[in-house]
Known about the structure:
Blueprint: H1 2-8, H2 10-26, H3 33-54, H4 57-61, H5 65-75, H6 91-98, H7 100-114, H8 116-122, H9 125-142, H10 153-168, H11 171-183, H12 212-223, H13 226-246, E1 256-260, H14 266-278, E2 282-284, H15 304-309, H16 320-336, H17 338-342, E3 344-353, H18 371-391, E4 400-405, H19 413-424, H20 428-442, E5 447-452, E6 459-463, E7 473-474, E8 477-479, E9 489-492, E10 495-510, E11 513-523, E12 526-531, H21 538-550, E13 558-564, H22 567-575, H23 584-587, E14 592-597, E15 616-617, H24 632-635, E16 640-644, E17 650-656, E18 663-667, E19 670-671
Parallel strand pairs: 1-2, 1-3, 3-4, 7-15
Antiparallel strand pairs: 5-6, 5-17, 6-10, 8-9, 9-13, 10-11, 11-12, 13-14, 14-16, 17-18, 18-19
Helix pairs in contact: 2-3, 2-9, 3-8, 3-9, 6-7, 7-9, 9-10, 11-16, 13-14, 16-18
Amino acid sequence: MIHQLNEKFNEEILALQETLVDIYMEESNNKDSLASYARQVAGFLGDMFSLESEINEAYFTDKTFDQLLDLNHKYYEDIAGDNYLQSYANPDVTTEMFGKRIGQVLATIYFRVRGSVAFAFEGRQFSIMWVGSLFVGAYELMKPYRDKLKDNEEVGIKLTNLLKEEARNNRVEKMELGIYRRFNPTFNVYSSIASLPYDRRNIFRYGMYISDNEIKLLDYFESLADEKLQRIADTYTEAFIRGFKRNNVSLEGKKTVNVGYQIGFEPIIKKAYENLKKEGLLPLVYYEIGGSPRPRIINTKPSPQMEYDHKFDDGLYNDQALCDEGVAITDQAYTKHQKFLKQFAGPAIMEVFGEKPFEPISKDTSVKYSKELTEIIKGFTNSRQEILNRFLPRSAYSFVLISFPTPAIGDQFSEIFDATIEVNTLDESKYMDIQAKIIEALDKGIGAHITGRNGNKTDLFVAFNQDFDKQKQTNFVNCTADVNVPVGEVFTSPKLEATKGKLHVSEVFLHGLNYKELEIDFEEGMMASYSCKNFNDEEKNLEYIRENLTHPYDSLPLGEFAIGTNTTAYAMAKKYKIDDIIPILIGEKMGPHFAVGDTCFAWSEEVEVFNPDGREIVGKENSKTKLRHDDPSQAYTYCHTDITIPYKELGHIIVKVPNGEDIEIIRDGRFVLAGTEALNEPLKDIEV
């Protein structure tokens, strides 16, 4: 597809290259703000066209590792580290130069232009041309006003309209390109890298920013025995395959699996490919230029603040008409390419942790959504997800999530990595039996009362569904190490009605962001109010939660209640003092956790799922998700964020039984339910 689009737009590509040279030369003698911006953008785009033409096999094999590293850092020089403070991608810089509205548009354009590094490595001349044409259009609009650009409302309106026009241009091709990159195995720009004979220089084939973190990973994996690499790969892929059995999903007809991993993990991924190949599965590997939570290739970001600054850039121009067009084009594109979606077996994601929690700066210069647009985006998200679920229902594929540390975690990296392997490969049968005892107690109750201690203000009652046959059915999932590694939790979808109270954690790391003193009050299972203490300004704290935790909603339901049982993981976090950077994938197993948003069974409530003891799991929905039968747009939020109370902050978990004989599961951070005492062993030397 990439070759065809390059051919289709060949004349426009050549014409744009000439125009960029003309702009650069024309502005070389000018000294004003427009000239400075134009030279930077035109020069960068010209460099990306040149880079694209240079990339071939010899580009990687004729250079040393250090030469390739120098080139890699050159591509990201103006946004890496403190350089971002002066970059034209930074809205603080462009709004100071041109005023708020024009500055926001120009920062948006340059942010998109910076994605041309990836376009070059993927051979997408047409994509460089598309974003380059947007820049040229903006430049031509501003030229007549160059002496009176700052805060020029007329120019700002014209530039905003230009962004809207660009959003409509080539929209069908852009949508189909996205499907091609995500689901078509013939797109192998990235999936082929781990298949190559091992060479340290291969990490530069992604075109993504390479830091010491990625290089130290290579050093580490080069030092490991082949057997250890195979063990890690086996844990990863076997959990994925087990998920098909757990979720009662057939592998028949499945041909592809989305593989997501950290650059530097190629020695493991290479072995994982071989494991998947034995199952008849080909890898799909891609990443989104603008960033995405998952699935994708992971690397150390040259500037996390940059991506945070540009989260809502479409707020400059997006509207109901554009969203309606987007829904129609999405439907057409998925219909056209549905063959590849039917072959999709699911995502297999190897996540990482170790970097210090990112604490973003909330800027007045960044684009924000209006309340009206927030509602429009909410409707667009629902409609688009309904289309995806029609062609790729959750009941049609499996997944796996597993996590490992990176060298960014510090000097004890290798020890922590070994400890994480232990956590990820614990004896499932042991936990299965213990968790069955916890489920037996929970199924006797109408709900659970959870309280905090040591300064934690949690005082929450979570209600359970009651309408089920306790001999043949259960509310709770006995979660072992399939799909969601490591082992160690029981969970259900709470009954929203009667669920009420306060959830509080002193500090938590969610979706790459840090929250301090996060408090959420629930009424009827819905978030009634919330707060945190990241900023001195209370309104900024509320905005931070709304933009990053609940967006695009003001309130979310309590979609999951779980009790984590992996005390080995908790002990590891305490021993190495990494509580603040443990990913939620492991952190959710380290205590009770509460997910705001959808249940774990969104869009798959009708699929029959059973625990190892043969009992069917019926705690899969709530009064909100039941709306899917009449109005799916009201049933789901497409959010699911787990928030864990660590054992040190946990007072008790008490099952409230109708006859008044309450059952304690945890008291003062220790398991006290009969048959669960073994879970306290890893905690014997840990302050809880």
